[in-house]
Amino acid sequence: MHATYDVIVVGAGHAGNEAAAASANLGARTLLITMNMGVIGQMSCNPAMGGIAKGQIVREIDAMGGYSGIVSDHSAIQFRMLNRSKGPAMWSPRTQNDRMRFAEKWRLMLEGTPLLDFWQDAVTGLVIENGVCCGVQTQLGSTIRSKSVVVTAGTFLNGLMHIGEKQFGGGRAGERSASGITEQLVEHGFTADRMKTGTPPRVDGRSIDYSVLEEQLGDPDPRRFSYTDTPVLTQQMSCHIAHTNTDVHEILKEGFDRSPMFNGRIQGLGPRYCPSIEDKIERFHTKDSHQLFVEPEGWKTVEVYVNGFSTSLPEDIQVKALRSVPGFGGVKFFRPGYAVEYDFFHPTQLHHSLETKNLKNLFFAGQINGTTGYEEAAAQGLMAGINAARSTWNKSPVVLKRNEAYIGVLIDDLVTKGTKEPYRMFTSRAEYRILLRQDNADQRLTPLSHDIGLAHEDRLRTLEAKQNTMRTFKTRLEKTSVSPEQAADLLKTIDSAPLQQKQKAISILNRPGVSIQLLIDSLEDIASVQEELQVDVETLEAIEVQIKYSGYIEKEQAIADKLQRLDHVQIPADFNYHALESLSSEAREKLSESKPNNLAGASRISGVSASDLAVLLVHLGR
Predict the structure, then answer these.
(1) Cα(423)–Cα(111) distance, integer angstroms
(2) pLDDT tens readout for residues 303-335
(3) Which CATH number does 202-339 carry?
């Protein structure tokens, strides 16, 4: 360990790891501090990555040169592309992962990153001088100085764990909480609050009767998250689905009087979209059954994660209730479920760079900003690491726009709107979903990442080769004529009207029910193009989406470009909103609190109306 660093990253979870990797790979001398080197990259909750909107985020992280996609591919035990029955804007990749391999791969990749050092210690405070964060103080009595600090404390800031009527300090099972940072930052004018999250029991898979459960297989053609040459799954493990019933619900209700959720001991708000089993029964009391997803923890372990049974009820109630679920009659527990309550800082106290407004060179990422989920944390960590490194060289921050990435939507939502409950990403939060597809993350973000020095040259060359292939294939489809006779069998197969005259292959592809693979299978000319260009399945799929949805894509891009003009209308940092009596009182209050950088940011604040924006335009001289 050196006496000084460019960047210090506090915490080695998903946010901290991505922050440390990004910072070091940009050339900043970086120190990653964690309380326990043995749990770097630990999957604290479910053993899975990706999912609805989250899969898009993992692909974006990979396209930017982050590590999460690579780690996920190397540790995957199952792959599924969710929402295949919907449009391509909704397709979302997801992997089940081997928990031990996941953490091991993270550790190995970080140890293989030049300019990255490690230190096992607890950070108890920050070094703050004249409004600037310039290092950390540790439990061992060390003062380590740096040009910037990224705090990714997860659920550890004054973490308090709950199981029934029992309470004990901790940020995760078997690990102590962290104190000192919250109190210090509150003294410097920060606003902190409490949130809570929960986790289900882990059980012995040997004690489950899988014969009565519904098997959930992986995709027959598994894909990958990473655009690099990571391994493709050749063997997959199955998940299973179980169901609660009214007997289970009645047993759970027996423990409600001892539940910390219902007797007031937990003050923090939990995630709306991933509620505990007791919360589900209370909120959806008319439902007789809830799904449970039975997820294996890895290739060589019998430990199983019971997704959907997150709880902080007493252990005896947990055991009794779960054993009433069909298939779980003789289930053995490895550990009970629990809730953890922790400090977070309202994210409206951040710039879009994730640097805090109150203190220069201090960045926050992950659950400290009020988010939930590995993917959301990793995305913030990536951007905080990039901007922390760039701040050491006085370079302007990198800020992704809402039409550029789900990461941009995530950060803009947090900074502009804030959150009072754990924030989780959904496709519905992105107004430009058709632009932000999982298949084009590399095309959207790799050139930018390469420009700032993060994505390596080989990534850019791979992308350029892919784009050349896509353009060439599309051109050949536009030039290849297909006769009525050649297309007869193909169109008959999908019950589509026959051709009356020759048409270009691209016109046939635009017909409902015609896929690019069907064209290749039915038309020799197109099959020869695919063979000549050696186009892989995933690139073929991207070409098809680009062609079939070109009208929607162009329309959405035009809307984005129009609204983007508001980004150029800058608002001075010291702008006095209270002096504008024409603004609504709500707008004056919320704009004064949020201090948006430009009119686009102002437009996204809840309570700021179109007439308020018109007033601002006039006063800003537009």
Answers:
(1) 31
(2) 999 999 999 999 999 999 999 999 999 999 999
(3) 2.40.30.260
For residue 273, report the phi and psi dihedrals to the nearest 5 degrees.
-100, 5
Query: How many Cα atoms within 13 Å fall on the side-chain side of residue 252?
Result: 27
**Alpha-carbon gap, residue 32 to 109, rounded angstroms:** 13
Least confident of 155-169, 403-417, 506-520: 155-169
> Cα-atom radius of gyration of the chain, to the nearest Å?
26
3-state secondary structure 184-205: HHHHCCCCEEEEEEEECCEEEH
Q: Where are the beta strands (DSSP E) in 177-336?
A: 192-199, 202-204, 214-216, 239-243, 291-296, 303-307, 333-335
pLDDT at 263: 58
Beta strand pairing status for 30-34 and 116-120? Answer: parallel
Return the CATH class of domain 569-619.
mainly alpha
Task: Please list, residue by residue across 218-233, b when 16 or more beta carbons sit within 10 angstroms of its beta carbon and e when fewer do.
Answer: bbeebbbbbbeebeeb
Do residues 137 and 128 touch, judged by C-beta distance below 8 A?
no
Q: Which residue is associated with the tokens 């210690």?
A: 121
How would you label 168-186 residue by residue, b for 16+ Cβ within 10 Å and e otherwise? eebbbeebebbbbbbeebe
What DSSP line would sit under 141-176, residue for residue?
S-EEEEEEEEE--TT-BT-EEEETTEEEE-SBTTB-
Place of tokens 């999957």: 43
Name the residue ranges covered by the structural domains of the chain.
202-339, 457-551, 569-619
pLDDT of res. 593: 82
Q: Which stretches within 91-134 are classed as H helix? A: 99-111
Q: Which class is 457-551 in CATH?
A: mainly alpha
Q: Which amino acid is at 183?
A: E
Q: Return the closest-CA partner of residue 600 out of 483, 431, 459, 480.
A: 431
- With both helix axes pointing from N to C terminus, report the angle between 14-25 and 99-111 in degrees, rounded to the nearest 10: 20
Distance separating alpha carbons of residues 305 and 312, to the nearest angstrom: 15
| Stretch 224-250: mean pLDDT | 96
Beta strands 166-169; 160-163: pairing state? antiparallel
* Long-range contacts, stretch 460-466, CB < 8 angstroms, 24+ apart: 462/227, 462/228, 463/227, 466/442, 466/539
Let me know: does 27 contact 166? Beta carbons within 8 Å.
Answer: no
Q: DSSP characters for 343-376?
A: EEE-GGGB-TTSBBSSSBTEEE-SGGGTB-SHHH
